[in-house]
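FAQ

Q: What does a record look like?
A: Structure on top, sequence underneath. For example:
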């Protein structure tokens, strides 16, 4: 089992990254091969809407630091996307990656029975937020879940921790979130 993790936080040791790393450590302990990319450390542009990936190419025409990430995700059996909620959404770093996954879709993706070039994959979406109200920003995951299914992630789970972050003085991942991450890792390996 190959698992690729994309850390969307600009904070290397932030809460979403800590949860994702715990998930990967658990999976590695169960025999998984893991690879992590810190998106904030990479130099890349968002999708340029050039449609080259729909007109003769099966990959993104841009050649930057995200090229390796897109290839690693394509080769993986499972993917972990980890991000804090910033201004009611995922980070710009993760959004830039998601926009570039447009290249995973076949030219007739709107009508194709199988719109993705990816083989079916499992995905864990890790979301953290400083606000403790779980109802707040509860729309973030469902909004992206549909796109992720379209891209070929056929089994998607969520690990979510609310009320943690440096702004509220609670920059410590609760044990419940780490347990959820470990359970998600075991599910990926099943």
């Amino acid at each position: 089992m190959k698992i690729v993790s994309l850390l969307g936080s600009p904070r290397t040791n932030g809460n979403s990254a800590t949860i994702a790393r715990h998930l990967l450590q658990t999976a590695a302990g169960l025999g998984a091969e893991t690879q992590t990319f810190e998106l904030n450390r990479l130099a890349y542009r968002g999708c340029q809407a050039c449609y080259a990936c729909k007109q003769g190419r099966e990959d993104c025409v841009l050649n930057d630091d995200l090229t390796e990430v897109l290839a690693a995700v394509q080769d993986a059996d499972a993917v972990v996307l980890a991000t804090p909620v910033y201004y009611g959404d995922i980070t710009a770093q993760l959004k830039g990656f998601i926009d570039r996954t447009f290249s995973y879709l076949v030219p007739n993706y709107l009508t194709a029975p199988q719109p993705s070039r990816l083989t079916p994959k499992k995905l864990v979406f890790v979301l953290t937020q400083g606000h403790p109200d779980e109802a707040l920003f509860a729309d973030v995951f469902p909004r992206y879940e549909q796109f992720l299914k379209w891209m070929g992630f056929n089994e998607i789970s969520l690990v979510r921790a609310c009320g943690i972050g440096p702004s509220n003085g609670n920059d410590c991942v609760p044990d419940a979130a780490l347990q959820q991450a470990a359970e998600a890792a075991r599910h990926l390996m099943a």
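Q: Is there anything notable about this one?
A: The radius of gyration is 16 Å.
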